[in-house]
């Protein structure tokens, strides 16, 4: 998946079709590969969220100077890619579907410089909006569990796309 996404073929894991579509849309706007991930930790005090997945990030997103490790996927077979992602301005988004309607969640932040803190691929993002508000939206408003992250600020483009497609844009 890492190599395919780097080669321009956007992939998604766990059968997440709408997450893959979100990633593909963001790639078109930003011109760079996306990272489809879970939020595995939120720190409301520092206003940061940790995005992680079991080795699905494109190799080109590895932080400078960090090793890209290819290992066994958590003892169950298969290949796991491990590295911390680079720092920089990011957009996080999610195309969702609920009650027969599409909607899109859009927020921005800055991926911070971190070292390898867990196995898999990981980014630590300081949110521009409230991390608590983001988590509350995801949990209480029934959003699917993956967010797509892309380097660059494409929030305005995503909002415009929602307007054109006549779908709700939840902008944080």
UniProtKB/TrEMBL annotation:
Boundaries of every L-fucose isomerase C-terminal domain copy: 82-169
Region forming the signal peptide: none
Keyword terms, alphabetized: Carbohydrate metabolism, Isomerase
tRNA processing recorded as keyword: no
PANTHER family reported in the protein's UniProt record: FUCOSE ISOMERASE, L-FUCOSE ISOMERASE C-TERMINAL DOMAIN-CONTAINING PROTEIN
Protein name: L-fucose isomerase C-terminal domain-containing protein
Organism this protein belongs to: Gordoniibacillus kamchatkensis
